Amino acid sequence: MQPTERIFLAVLLAHLLADFPLQSSRIVLGKRRGFAAYLQHGLIHGVVLLGCLTLFARPWMQFSPGAVGALLLYLGVHLAIDFLKQRLLSHHQWAADSVGTFLVDQALHLSSILVLVWWLLPPGVLRPGSPWEWSLPTQDRVLQAAVVFVAVVFGGGYLIRYLTRNLSTGAGRALGESATQLRNAGLYIGWLERFLILTALLMQAPSLVGLILAAKSIARFPELKEEFAEYFLIGTLLSVSIALVGALLLLKVWDGSVSLK
């Protein structure tokens, strides 16, 4: 893997970790009330970013004053994007649970990551690296797998949540639950479901996917009625599709071809 790809994936992994599994609902709600939540989110993001770059990009990247300044500027831009999004949401110019809002927000963050990687790659920043105890090809695979797993398991969960938000209200009534309770339950179940499916496909054991889906269907069988059945099926199919795309992408990158036995 080239240094540019390595640094890009390391920063992307930090973003995915900090924005999804490590950004609690308390931090999200806190952004509506003041700057303390933004500082907490920025601190978490900064620690995770340094960890990912040290672990995966250290052989090619020197933490010079210029590089540190670029990282701090990147974190500032990240928080500014979050603040702008929150302002637009508070003025009802963006819908809170909109797919468009989610995609535009992530596109802006991705753009800032690309600018950061470009900034970190002048000739003076790169240097030959001493090998780690684990080989560079192993680091490549771990980094690629980490990015795909976090994006599929956590990022995919929020995307599905936004895509099925209109179905959750009717499904919640059918079960006697609030739409928020139903969405949260589906989010957590989906995390585990996509993790298991992605792992099964990478282990060349696609038959396990059928067992996973069968177990989920049996557990939910008494509730498969009226509006909930539609919500359940659409959410499950979206979840499986995202996990399948992630697995195929990793297999293609690792092996150069896709072969599921």
Give an account of the 3D structure:
This protein has helices at 3-19, 25-30, 36-56, 65-90, 99-120, 136-163, 165-175, 179-202, 207-220, 226-255. It is mostly helical and 261 residues long. Helix 3 crosses helix 4. The longest helix is centred in the last third of the chain and has 30 residues, at 226-255.
> What's the end-to-end separation, in Å?
27 Å
Beta-strand percent range: under 5%
Q: How many domain modules?
A: 2
Helical segment count: 10
The averaged pLDDT comes out at 80
What class, by secondary structure content?
mainly alpha
What string, H for helix and E for strand, traces the elements in order? Answer: HHHHHHHHHH
Low-confidence runs (pLDDT<50, min 5 residues)?
124-132
Number of distinct beta strands = 0
Question: What characterizes the major β-sheet?
Answer: none
The helix content, as a percent range, equals over 70%
Anisotropy-based shape: flat
SSE topology:
Blueprint: H1 3-19, H2 25-30, H3 36-56, H4 65-90, H5 99-120, H6 136-163, H7 165-175, H8 179-202, H9 207-220, H10 226-255
Provide keyphrases for this structure.
261 residues; mainly alpha; 2 domains; 76% helix; 0% strand
Concise synopsis of the structure shown:
This protein is mainly α and 261 residues long. Helices cover 76% and strands 0% of the residues.
